[in-house]
Design brief:
This protein has 180 residues and is mainly alpha-helical. It is built from 7 helices and 3 strands. The relative contact order is 0.06. The mean pLDDT is 78.
Length: 180
């Protein structure tokens, strides 16, 4: 049994004298075994083991925070302030904020259960698939509003033209309505 796979409270690991990253075998977790391990100046682990890759998780977290905060962290709030007509902006902004926080709650409440049920890798794979589907949704359904006055954004949204070619600047139907 590997150290990180142990979830039983009856199991513990006594680290090797030579290298604390080599935890050894799963042992019965009781006071006698624990005292024996500590008596030999070895470390006793019951909730996972040390890893030489711990710094990688810290760097990954720092990169996530660095890139999320100015990017996708603010995008939903900026888009909300632009896409709704003035007469509906307050109600729609409230609905969007509620949906955002409910989504956060679902992720927070399901993460540990999913991790225990299917493992960390599969949990992150599920979240990656959901994120990719959300990216495709945004590319197709959310219009580009950069540099457009609010009146033109309202016209664009009233036409409700799907943009399956999201790399184009503006839908052709909007350009026709501007020419009229």
């Amino acid at each position: 049994m590997k150290c990180l796979k142990s979830s039983s409270p009856d199991c513990g690991f006594c680290a090797s004298k030579a290298d604390k990253l080599l935890p050894g075998a799963c042992l019965i977790s009781n006071d006698t075994t624990k005292d024996s391990c500590h008596g030999e100046d070895r470390l006793w682990y019951t909730r996972g083991c040390p890893s030489k890759y711990g710094w990688l998780a810290l760097i990954g977290l720092a990169l996530y925070i660095t890139f999320f905060s100015p990017g996708m962290g603010t995008v939903p709030w900026i888009v909300n302030s632009e896409i709704y007509p003035l007469r509906y902006r307050d109600v729609c902004g409230g609905i969007a904020a509620t949906a955002n926080w409910i989504s956060n709650l679902i992720v927070a409440q399901s993460f540990l259960s999913l991790t225990q049920a299917i493992g960390t890798s599969w949990t992150f794979l599920i979240f990656r698939i959901i994120s990719f589907a959300a990216l495709i949704f945004v590319l197709i359904f959310v219009p580009e509003t950069k540099g457009l006055p609010i009146e033109e954004v309202e016209k664009m949204l009233e036409l409700r033209a799907l943009r399956f070619k999201f790399w184009e600047k503006r839908p052709k139907t909007l350009e026709k309505s501007r020419a009229v």
